[in-house]
Amino acid sequence: MDWDNLGFKLITTDYIYSMKCTEEGNFEQGRLSLHANIELSPAAAILNYAQGVFEGTKAHKKEDGGLLLFRPDQNGVRMKIGAERMCMPSPSVDQFVDAVKQTAIANRSWVPPSGKGSLYIRPLLMGTGGALGVAPAPDYTFLVYASPVANYFKEGLAPLNIYVEDEFHRASPGGTGHVKAISNYSPCLKALTRAKKRGFSDVLFLDSIHKKYVEELSTCNIFIVKGNQISTPATNGTILPGVTRSSIIEIARDYDYKIEEREIEVDEVMEAEEVFCTGTAVGVASVGSITYHTKR
Ligand code: COI
């Protein structure tokens, strides 16, 4: 492996973990197997009705070769909440963490050396049984795969250039923006590809009612800094409660920053002293510029 040139591209590792679940919600004993494509009914609920949620977490290699996982229990809790919203049974938090651990250990030769990146671990829960009408699937599959990664953005650690999207929205009240539904991501693609073609790193979505409060980017949460005060949009139903987001809030409180989770108007972001983004894939990324209409 060329550990110095990892980006955020899929590199297939040796093992995946999978566990099947019946309609009654009983998960059978999960197992590791060699990474391979999976077989699905053309009528699978995940393919036809996007009944699925996913997670992202990372394993890091310590200098002594040991592995560190970053708060995987919080991803397990979030998957449970997401599964409930999508009418799916979900593994217990213990089953989830055990699956993540087994996947990390089985693929440990793919975890980059300390300081070169991490093993991105992707737990996926989906309705794999066929359902012609709109209804919860008759059976489900939980699987976990992994890929070694380094920086998410091609900019590396350079500050991001963000475009404020005011035509398309990521989420709306009562929808699924607060959970990691698979269906939350492809609707971002139109705005994202358009912005990327214009040289931006990512898009910042606005709320769909007033069209003036910032929500999050296609890949991560946002924070603004003014003096000793750090603010981030409140998790009010349209914002994903990021694990990195909550870690940053806890750390900032320990360092005596004043933290506010609230509505933030886009104009306030444009005037902030500093802006940064957080997410599992993204880590903590600083923002160099924000473009909103003709303002920058
Ligand atoms: C993550 O940060 O793990 C995500 O799921 C964001 C993304 C790459 C879709």
From TrEMBL:
GO terms for biological process: amino acid biosynthetic process; branched-chain amino acid biosynthetic process. Keywords: Amino-acid biosynthesis, Aminotransferase, Branched-chain amino acid biosynthesis, Pyridoxal phosphate, Transferase. The modification N6-(pyridoxal phosphate)lysine is found at K180. PROSITE patterns: AA_TRANSFER_CLASS_4 (PS00770). One of its GO terms (molecular function) is branched-chain-amino-acid transaminase activity. It catalyses: L-leucine + 2-oxoglutarate = 4-methyl-2-oxopentanoate + L-glutamate; L-isoleucine + 2-oxoglutarate = (S)-3-methyl-2-oxopentanoate + L-glutamate; L-valine + 2-oxoglutarate = 3-methyl-2-oxobutanoate + L-glutamate. Gene3D superfamilies: 3.30.470.10, D-amino Acid Aminotransferase, subunit A, domain 2. It comes from the Eukaryota. Its EC number is 2.6.1.42. Its cofactor is pyridoxal 5'-phosphate. Coiled coil: none annotated. Pfam families: Aminotran_4. Belongs to the class-IV pyridoxal-phosphate-dependent aminotransferase family. This is Branched-chain-amino-acid aminotransferase. The lineage of its organism: Eukaryota, Viridiplantae, Streptophyta, Embryophyta, Tracheophyta.
